[in-house]
Automatic annotation (TrEMBL), chain A:
EC identifiers of the protein: 6.3.5.-
InterPro entries the record matches: Asp/Glu-ADT_sf_sub_c, GatC
Subunit structure: Heterotrimer of A, B and C subunits.
Catalysed transformations (reactions): L-aspartyl-tRNA(Asn) + L-glutamine + ATP + H2O = L-asparaginyl-tRNA(Asn) + L-glutamate + ADP + phosphate + 2 H(+); L-glutamyl-tRNA(Gln) + L-glutamine + ATP + H2O = L-glutaminyl-tRNA(Gln) + L-glutamate + ADP + phosphate + H(+)
Keyword Protein biosynthesis: yes
Family: Belongs to the GatC family.
HAMAP family linked: GatC
Gene3D superfamilies attached to this UniProt entry: Glu-tRNAGln amidotransferase C subunit, N-terminal domain
Keyword flag Nucleotide-binding: yes
Gene: gatC
Protein's name in the database: Aspartyl/glutamyl-tRNA(Asn/Gln) amidotransferase subunit C
UniProtKB/TrEMBL annotation, chain B:
Compositional bias of kind Low complexity: 344-373
Annotated region described as Disordered, given as residue ranges: 342-373
Chain coiled-coil ranges: none
Alphabetized Gene3D superfamilies for the sequence: Amidase signature (AS) domain
Organism for this UniProt entry: Frondihabitans sucicola
Lineage, broadest ranks: Bacteria, Bacillati, Actinomycetota, Actinomycetes, Micrococcales
SUPFAM superfamilies documented for this protein: Amidase signature (AS) enzymes (SSF75304)
Name listed for the protein in its UniProt record: Amidase domain-containing protein
Domain Amidase: 26-338
């Protein structure tokens, strides 16, 4: 079993800015542990004769010339914003806050 | 009249539209009436398109003017709420995006419009497509039309239930780890996850980008083929879109209707899937389906896919990694809800609520939703 602890889940929730109840912390501790256990299971399948595979579909990077294509207008881009000043998104301050 | 109309397959409806026996307005009206009649119980739709009849009238006008129209022109369709629509809210089943109307159409939606299909509305889904039951939509669950006490599968339970309940002849879904196919199985409809890269993901609100694929939901295989023929193809806006030419699946479905059409076709049955954990009756139906294929001339062979054993574990790594990266965009900066709950002791920053949290009462069992995880 993995060693995910309640304290780690509380710390992660703080980083993600998600408020959790104690019950949720218990449940997520188990669930995140299961995800970590999955790493061990997949590692079993790794052997030297299996090349690293990012995707089974034959894809290569797609490039194009750096020219302006079809774009949204400023008005269209801002239409769904919670707050804006007409030309820019307004966001909550993240620097200089009270500690 | 409209009661008969809603029971037609998309292929049969399109033949009546082409011959002039039925108008797009009549077909659309019939389905809107059905939605009004049953969706209070089924709850397949999050939003019904107020402009549907207007769109249908414009298709009728084009047909009357002699315009060349695609085979599905005038056929109504339901669209999973994971897909961006410029004229309807697109929430991905989340309160974070409640009321958000995107500034552009997903490529598949643009293709539907260009082909003359009539969008009926947006269908319910598990929040951000994470779930297998459509119980975890922030807007309440969808019910299985065959038995309202049962789930319709998920995450695309809304699209599957809409088609099963004759609220729409066709729907679009999206499938990352079964979200089209499993609701198809649970509602007795046809759901296909197309080959990755064959259908554009542009404008599909991403869950796990290396697995997501948009695909058709219908009541017949031919209809799924007709819809796939509309939405397939390369899109320069999706960098994982393949440049290949795809054969017509509708043509293949028609050929499949001929007796003995499966002579010379070999069908593999994966032996690793023959394990425990099936409800009674499932294996029996599976065997019956195999017998039907044999009767149609197919040769059945057993194949082995030993790495299937690792599939769920790999999925549990790929999906959360990609989903957490994709959901990071809902950081309340450009999109999303801003909430400052009382007692946010750690900082004065806005706490970012996941949808299930911004929505109504959580169960006391403390079930945490997949997006929170």
């Amino acid at each position: 079993m993995s060693e995910i602890t309640r304290e780690q889940v509380e710390h992660l929730a703080g980083l993600a800015r998600i408020a959790l109840t104690p019950d949720e912390i218990d449940k997520l501790t188990g669930e995140l542990g299961h995800i970590v256990d999955s790493i061990a299971k997949v590692t079993e399948a790794v052997s030297a004769d299996v090349p690293a595979t990012s995707h089974p579909i034959p894809l290569a990077n797609v490039f194009r010339d750096d020219v302006v294509g079809e774009t949204l207008t400023q008005e269209q881009a801002l239409r769904g914003a919670p707050e804006h000043d007409g030309t820019r998104f307004k966001v909550s301050a993240i620097l200089g806050e009270e500690q | 009249m409209s009661d008969d109309l809603i029971h037609l397959s998309a292929a049969d409806l399109s033949a009546k539209l082409a011959s002039g026996e039925v108008s797009a307005v009549e077909a659309t009206k019939g389905h809107l009436d059905r939605i009004a009649g049953v969706d209070g119980d089924v709850h397949a739709f999050l939003h019904v398109n107020a402009a549907a009849l207007e769109t249908a009238a414009s298709i009728d006008a084009r047909r009357a003017a002699g315009d060349e129209l695609g085979p599905l022109a005038g056929v109504p369709i339901a669209i999973k709420d994971v897909l961006c629509t410029i004229d309807m809210p697109s929430t991905s089943g989340s309160k974070i995006l409640e009321g958000w109307v995107p500034p552009y159409d997903a490529t598949v939606v643009a293709k539907l419009r260009a082909a003359g299909l009539v969008p009926l509305g947006k269908t319910n889904m598990d929040e951000f497509a994470m779930g297998s039951s459509t119980e975890f939509s922030a807007f309440g669950p969808t019910h299985n039309p065959w038995n309202l006490d049962r789930i319709p599968g998920g995450s695309g339970g809304g699209s599957a239930a809409a088609v099963a309940a004759f609220e729409a002849p066709l729907a679009l879904g999206s499938d990352t780890g079964g979200s089209i196919r499993q609701p198809g199985a649970v509602t007795g409809t046809v759901g296909v996850k197309p080959t990755y890269g064959s259908v554009s993901r542009y404008g599909a609100i991403a869950l796990a980008s290396s697995l997501d694929q948009v695909g058709p939901v219908s009541r017949t295989v031919l209809d799924a083929g007709l819809l796939h023929d509309v939405i397939k193809g390369h899109d320069k806006r999706d960098s994982t879109s393949l440049a290949d030419e795809w054969p017509s699946f509708a043509d293949a479905a028609r050929r499949g209707l001929a007796p003995g059409s499966l002579h010379g076709v070999k069908v593999g049955i994966v032996k690793e899937l023959n394990g425990d954990g099936f409800q009674s009756g499932v294996k029996q139906r599976f065997s019956e389906a195999v017998a039907l294929l044999t009767g149609a001339g197919a040769e059945i062979v057993e194949v082995s896919a030993p790495s299937f054993e690792y599939a769920i574990s790999a999925y549990y790594l790929i999906l959360p990694a990609e989903a957490s990266s994709n959901l990071a965009k809902f950081d309340s900066v450009r999109f999303g809800l801003r909430v400052n709950p009382e007692g946010a002791a750690r900082s004065s920053r806005s706490w970012r609520p996941l949808a299930s949290r911004a929505s109504a009462p959580r169960s006391s069992a403390g079930s945490s939703s997949a997006p929170t995880r």
